[in-house]
């Protein structure tokens, strides 16, 4: 990680540490403190600061809104864990498991309000633009989550439907963070659009790599047990392409696995992974990730500023895809 990335990450952490997170009633605020300080790489606010710096803006003007976006992100995780019944988040008990679902809902609602408080700390001349961007993003993230839940009951999901779902659920938030930084720095509408496109496509590439890592990643490096998406019958990019490409015998194995006719989890993972490898999906997923990453870089390259000003943002994006940070 470059010195600039380290410096800006520290600035974000200092801002978060300055917020009074624990107050009365403690039962409401302790989960907020727990959630915001339970790891996380601060990638989204870092994107906002990098975008602002890239356009020679004052990063102090974007730090509040950037942290607001980070608080919103953590709020979504708190509520997602309830919906997914996820016992762990970043290797520790999720809020609803450590406390209970009612606490996680209410503390999450407080976090949503806190997010708006900090987003509103942007310069007054940009307040309406940034709030409109934030509200649009919130709605789209909720749409993405609903599509993801809808997919659980659908027999078939197309690649196009899946890409749109991850665009909404995962990619629009980093894109909005980048655009917020650009707007506050005084970038033109076209520059703001291009940096949004960059973030959106990096976000899609990131999620496809996440799908790949769930099956083919190293557990110790990735920090998750392999095959979680297979056990949960998640309709990932790999799942969708496998059903498109499989022959008669591979389809039989996939259907047996994903209709829960295979009761042993390790056997189920092994069977599905074998089909994915036979179809070459281990490499195809990485190729698809790189396709979206190339689209992202093309948008960034169209922004007419000095090449060296884009290097830190490119490094951050590459680190995300390499999982180097």
How would you describe this structure in keywords?
single chain; about 325 residues; mainly alpha; Farnesyl Diphosphate Synthase; two-stranded antiparallel sheet; 16 helices; 2 strands; about 75% helix; globular
Describe this entry's structure for a reader.
The chain contains 16 helices and two strands. The protein is mainly α. It has a single domain, classed as Farnesyl Diphosphate Synthase (Orthogonal Bundle), CATH 1.10.600. A two-stranded antiparallel sheet has the order 1-2. α1 (3-18) packs across α4 (60-84) and α13 (248-258) packs antiparallel against α14. The longest helix is centred in the middle third of the chain and has 28 residues, at 189-216. The chain is globular. The model has no long low-confidence stretch (mean pLDDT 93).
Q: SSE layout and pairings?
A:
Blueprint: H1 3-18, H2 26-36, H3 43-54, H4 60-84, E1 88-89, E2 92-93, H5 95-98, H6 101-119, H7 127-151, H8 159-185, H9 189-216, H10 219-222, H11 228-231, H12 237-245, H13 248-258, H14 265-278, H15 281-301, H16 311-322
Antiparallel strand pairs: 1-2
Helix pairs in contact: 1-3, 1-4, 2-6, 3-4, 3-8, 4-6, 4-8, 7-8, 8-9, 9-15, 13-14
């Amino acid at each position: 990680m470059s010195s600039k990335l380290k410096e800006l990450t520290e600035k974000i952490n200092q801002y978060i540490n300055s917020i009074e997170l624990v107050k009365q009633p403690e039962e409401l605020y302790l989960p907020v403190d727990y959630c915001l300080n339970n790891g996380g790489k601060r990638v989204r606010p870092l994107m906002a600061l990098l975008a602002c710096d890239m356009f020679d803006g004052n990063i102090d003007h974007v730090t509040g809104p950037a942290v607001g976006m980070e608080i919103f992100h953590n709020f979504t995780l708190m509520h997602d864990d309830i919906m997914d019944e996820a016992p762990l988040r970043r290797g520790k008990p999720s809020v609803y498991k450590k406390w209970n679902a009612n606490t996680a809902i209410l503390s999450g609602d407080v976090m949503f309000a806190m997010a708006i408080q900090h987003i509103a700390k942007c310069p007054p001349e940009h307040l309406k633009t940034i709030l409109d961007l934030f509200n649009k993003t919130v709605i789209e993230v909720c749409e993405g989550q609903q599509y993801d839940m809808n997919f659980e009951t659908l027999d078939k999901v197309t690649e196009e439907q899946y890409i749109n779902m991850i665009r909404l659920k995962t990619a629009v938030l980093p894109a909005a963070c980048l655009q917020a930084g650009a707007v506050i720095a005084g970038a033109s509408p076209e520059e703001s659009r291009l940096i949004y496109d960059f973030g959106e496509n990096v976000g899609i590439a990131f999620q496809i790599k996440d799908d790949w890592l769930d099956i083919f990643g190293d557990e110790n490096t990735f920090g998750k047990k392999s095959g979680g998406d297979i056990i949960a019958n998640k309709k990932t990019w790999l799942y969708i392409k496998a059903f498109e490409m499989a022959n008669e015998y591979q389809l039989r194995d996939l259907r047996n696995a994903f209709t829960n006719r295979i009761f042993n989890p390790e056997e189920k993972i092994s069977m599905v992974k074998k089909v994915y490898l036979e179809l070459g999906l281990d490499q195809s997923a990485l190729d698809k990730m790189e396709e979206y990453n190339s689209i992202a870089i093309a948008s960034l390259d169209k922004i007419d500023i000095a090449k060296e000003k884009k290097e830190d943002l490119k490094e951050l994006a590459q680190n995300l895809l390499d999982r180097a940070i």
